[in-house]
Amino acid sequence: MQPEQNCPNCGALIGTGEPGLPVVTCGFCHSLLSKAGDQLSKVGEAGRVPFDVSPIQIGTRLSVGGVRGEIVGRERWAYDGGFWNEWLLQFPNGEAFWVAEESGSYMVMKEVEATTEEAASLERAYQKGREAMGEQIWIDGTPHFLADTKTVRCIAVEGSLPHIIAADQPRFSIDLRTKKGSVVTFQVDRDGHSLWRGSYYLLADLEPANLRRFDHWSAPSFEVAG
Amino acid sequence: MNAPATPQAASTKALECPSCGGAFDLYAAGYSTKHVCQYCGSEIDLSGDETRLIAQHVEAAKALHIPLGTKGVIDDTEWVCVGNIEKNDGWDQWEEFLLFNPYHGYRWLVLQASGWSVGTPILAQPAHPNQSAFRYAGNRMKRIYDPAESKIERAIGEFYWQVKKGDKVKSTSYVGGGRVLSCEMTGDEFNWTLEEFIPSADVSKAFGVEDTGQFPKTGYYPQPHQPNPYGDGFKTSALVAGIAFVAAILVSILLSFEGEERSQAFTANPATSARSFDVGTLTVTGRARPFTITARGDPGDNNWMYLEYTLTNTATDEEIIASQPIEYYYGRDWKEDDRRGTVKISAVPPGTYRLTAEVLLPEDELPGAASRQSSPSPLAISGQGRPVTVVVRSNGTFNSHLVLLLIALFGPVVWIGLRAANFESKRQSGYDGADDDD
């Protein structure tokens, strides 16, 4: 067990952080802290995650594909006229998924490698922008429909994270969906492009435990104990 | 399961309209990006750090059928009404109430002229909305409304997108398996919603609001997914009538095994005067029974004979008379064979009965015919005996009764079937391309 540490900026107790995740935030002064060995150093501002009624919190446990993981961090993303949460779901073996939460649905995503052809089709769609809406692009042998395109920015983070996100760096994002609900997100930012494969879930499908509690709402019957 | 001291977060955020100062609760904080003040209609952007007035309006507040903040339970889940949209596509005007639960997300409660439905946003893309039909969850979904533009006439409350009055939304709908799939094509997104019918009385009960009623009380045609009120009745009544009819046939077959049977053979000879014979005596007990008298005789080629039955109650001497012609005629390319015939007597009251039969022959009507050689054909066998056998049974089934039963049983089925078809035809008159048929 790592020793609990204090925030180098404000002195508040940070906790042990997540092993293997190099970035942690201070819940008190919202500093973005980088871990190098035992040393914590401030690398920027984490921003304040605004009040929301997300049922997920750091410490919520979810199942994906029969494996149980725990939420250890969150990124808050915004686009012109909207926003959503991306929760980092860490598994005991060190693997991680991102769980994107938007208007009550949950997309569990993992980064995948695009073939040269797929990357070329996606680049073309990116160049076309909104004109490409509804187009069909073959990815991994399956037709995907282009469902959403937008420019997004990360506005705040909390908890433990795998990387430092530069604040207010625009990222172009294309969502493609299959008929069966499988989702691919193609992202282009200054660091290059990446392809994420995900599937939509209802919260109940993820067998959640340790959900957030609200006054005036009873806990859902699908919440599990462990 | 949960520790008693589980901290509870607030579920609402109290805000006030920057224009009119009216207080409102934000129910879906973190999801809602837009709020339209229910008091003055001013538009407030929630997507930034601070609430920001986008457009100031001074509009009279409108009383919503389900007021914002009203909670109700649908399918065991509690929902709060957070928004209301009124749409118009040039043909129809309808309202959509946005429902929210932090653990279950969003639902739409749609109020149309003909009634209500519950819409669940679906995450999959079941098809491209330019398709006219496709399969979804085991059903063939057929387009009922071509892509058409509707206009948002009013939006009040909080929303997870930047909705505003005057926005135009293109949408198309499909029906299959008693459910509707609608696709909204808003600029850069296809949003599919699965709509299920909900009785207006259920909405009224869930939210404690007035019952709006539904088709046929309101609207001109039923909703695409409104259950046909005669559909189940048709199936049930057809099944019941079918079972009853089969039972009636079985009972009549069983009854035919009951009762007594007597039979007697007799030969009428034109040369002698013996014409009458006793068939037998039968006793009817309990209830009245039908009698069946069957005769089989040989009148000879191109000839006839005639049987007259007398059923006599041995106690009262009351008589029931019946008759039976027996004929056999043929030509080169035709034949009329009535050498066998059955007479039914519908209800013979209890008692003991003797049946006698009298045979009439052509020779009896033509005295001396035996000597007339000018018409040899019918008399070709004159001088020979004409055998006849009569069988009487104190039971019998009446096909005419079964026909009446058939009409009595299936008449209502046909009537209900017509009502069901009428409902469907009204429903389809509301669809686009209502003349198409496939």
Care to give the gist of this entry?
Chain A is mainly beta and 226 residues long.
Features:
heterodimer, A: 226 residues, mainly beta, eight-stranded antiparallel beta barrel, two-stranded antiparallel ribbon, 1 helix, 16 strands, B: 438 residues, alpha+beta, Jelly Rolls, 2 domains, five-stranded antiparallel beta sheet, 4 helices, 25 strands
Order of helices and strands of chain A: EEEEEEEEEEHEEEEEE
Please state roughly what percent of the residues of chain B sit in beta strands, choosing from under 5%, 5-15%, 15-25%, 25-35%, 35-45% or over 45%.
35-45%
List low-confidence stretches of chain A: none
Distance between the termini of chain A: 22 Å
Radius of gyration of chain A: 18 Å
Most extensive interface between two protein chains, with residue counts: A-B, 44 and 44 residues
**Class computed from helices, strands and strand pairing of chain B:** alpha+beta
Main β sheet profile of chain B: 8 strands, antiparallel, barrel
Number of beta-strand segments of chain B: 25
Low-confidence blocks of residues of chain B: 370-380
What's the number of helices of chain B? 4
Q: What's the helical proportion of residues of chain A?
A: under 10%
Structural class based on helices, strands and sheet pairing of chain A: mainly beta
What share of residues of chain B is helical? 10-25%
| Average pLDDT figure of chain A | 89
| Quaternary organisation | heterodimer
Count of folded domains of chain B: 2
Outline of chain A = globular
Describe this structure in words.
The complex is a heterodimer of chains A (226) and B (438). Chain A has 226 residues and is mainly β. Among the domains of chain A are: 1-46, no CATH class; 111-201, no CATH class. Chain A contains one helix and 16 strands. An eight-stranded antiparallel beta barrel of chain A has the order 7-8-9-10-15-14-13-12. The mean pLDDT of chain A is 89. Chain B has 438 residues and is an alpha+beta fold. Chain B has two domains: 13-227, no CATH class; 261-366 and 382-396, GOLD domain (Jelly Rolls). Chain B is built from four helices and 25 strands. An eight-stranded antiparallel beta barrel of chain B has the order 8-9-10-11-16-15-14-13. Chain B has a five-stranded antiparallel sheet with strand order 18-24-20-21-22. Chain B has a four-stranded antiparallel sheet with strand order 17-25-19-23, with no helix packed on it. Residues 370-380 of chain B have low confidence and may be disordered. The A-B interface holds A 50-55, 78, 81-83, 85, 102-105, 130, 133-134, 136, 145, 147-150, 177-181, 200, 202-203, 211-221, 225 and B 1-2, 6-13, 27-31, 33-34, 45, 47, 49, 76, 78, 100-106, 121-128, 160-162, 187-190.
